[in-house]
Amino acid sequence: MIHHFPLFISSTEIVFILFIVIMVFGADKIPDIAKGMGKGMRTLKNATNDIKGEIQRSAEKQGIDTNLTKDVSEEIDKVKSDIEDLTGSVRRKL
Question: How far is CA 94 from CA 26, 41, 85, 87, 89, in A?
Answer without folding.
Answer: 47, 39, 15, 11, 9
